[in-house]
Queue: 3 jobs
Job 1
Amino acid sequence: MSETPQCPQCSSPYAYEDRDQYVCPECGHEWPQDGNAEEAQESTVTDANGNPLADGDTVTVIKDLKVKGSSSVVKVGTKVKNIRLVDGDHDIDCKIDGIGAMKLKSQFVKKA
């Protein structure tokens, strides 16, 4: 019987096997048993239509978005150029003309 590895995200020793992957009961992280944990963590960011996004792409906002801490709104159809992909809940880092630096969720944009 092989020894189960520690969770790559939280280093928990309590990971277990589930079919063809390992699961961490403490943080809920799942990774493949074939040892490609780094490849599994590199998930592709997609827009609202499922198109993959990359650094430097131009996207269009598909929904009016309120700017937190301000009374301004990012209107539907606003083009955002030269995006940067980052980890986290808001996975797009960008600058919007007239508003400034912002973080956006990829589910509210489409590739232009």
Job 2
Amino acid sequence: MSPFHKRVDGVALVTGAGSPGIGRATSVALSCAGISTLYITDINEKGLEDTKSIIGSLNLPSPPTIHAIPGDISSPDFIAALFSKISTLDYAVNCAGVLGQDKPTAEIGLEEFDWLNSINYRGLWMCVKEELKLMLKNDVKPYQGFTLSEGEARVRGQRGSIVNIASQLAIVGKTQAAIYTASKAAVMSLTRSDAIDYSKPPNCIRLNSICPGVIATPMTTTNPGEVSERLRDAINIAPMERMGLPSEIADTAVWLCSGESSFVTGSGVVVDGGYVIN
């Protein structure tokens, strides 16, 4: 299959797109999959420009128009400013998140708790709220892939698709990570409940989450000596015994955005090399 196989069409938003991790990989993957307009946001302004340059260097046959909008998704003022610039939206992948420090609950201060949740949960929720408002204005687009009839294409249609990045730790616990795991469990639970409210006709908006395992991103590899020790057990527990790649999460996100996953909603797709089964 060509890397430029068209699987999505229209307008997409990716948060957390300024770091060389899941957000950037997802932005690239959506561009390769045929998106026409791409909004990317991150607190890292230079990183957004780097993401934009990478996409521009791919020489895609139909490159997307890219709008890079730097800002902090934990800020309601920024959220209002960001969505005032987006008039229509077909897909959203909410990747922005932080890891926090390894500490048990009794050693966590309120300030750290609020900071982590303001990004991982509250910030994501503010984005989802605005994304839903935009998608509800769309017409239902019939599925553009292979079907046996026009009626089947209509049944598989959608107004939009939202993908939230959770974590394998939304499903299982981890020592000294209670507030992080709780924030990701909240993302997964939010996704499930929103899917009940918005997937049914006439809304036809699908919402899903991805639960990545240990992925090779700046959050996990900035300080190789310290981080490899911190994550070695998690990597070894997974049957595949390796870190995942951002592109592996990005491919899953594109699938969940596309009509190829038209009967999938409210799911937490685990992409973790088998960690949670062990």
Job 3
Amino acid sequence: MRHETRICILTLGIAIAVIAASPKAALASDGECGAPDAPCTLEGGEYYVALPEAPDEPPAVIWLHGYGRSGKAMIQNSAYVDPFIRRGYAVIMPSGQPSINNKDLDWGVADGYDLARDDVAFIDAVRADVVERFGIDPSRILIAGFSRGGSMVWDIACQAPELAKGFAAAAGAFWEPMTTECDAPVHLFHVHGFKDRMVPFEGRQLTWEGVEFNQGNVMKGVDVWRRENACLGSAENSFGDDDSMQKDWMDCEAGSIRLKVTKGGHGVPEGWRDAVLDWFEALP
């Protein structure tokens, strides 16, 4: 094992028991806090936690999974958990809610169709609970996500920017009908694959379960943030060794925007998590 972590997943009303486990999320024995079948439960949902061997009040990443996944599945996925744990971050994995097919888990993204749960309020409740229960540093929280989870990150950043120091999304942005203004400036890091056909960079129309949806154009969404952050000047442009293209809007009245476009498809690029933490730790 490269390192040890503590996985702690609790139900309301029971004491927190900390266990040592491998990065592959070895489970606690029956009755102990830590098994993925014993989530932290809140009104309307649940979440899972992986804790690093770190001092009190660690920083945290609240990770929002893609469509059809779950917090339970993601907390056991070392590819998602390990890069954050290695850097001393707690990892919080909430589960989405039933989609319009009432089967797959999804997020209540602002896309013209209302699911049962208000997911901005739910993530607010998750954040408050982990701060109280696990001693997370509330000033060092990153909310990040992939695909529909990434779109939910954009909505949370827009509607409740106070919930995190920074927001990072991969392959998911605003849907239509797109907002034209948000509550306050934010620090946002967005990455998108140029060849993404599931969530095309330019957006698309699709029909799901008989309901029409429109994925938003990423650049149209970025312009919402440029106006909100008051950074309408030219971006600083750079290119990565992986042929990625990056635009940084740093000369803003408040907040900042980083947009990275890779040559890949729908996915989380290799090394993205460490790149996001480097960016997050450099924020003012």
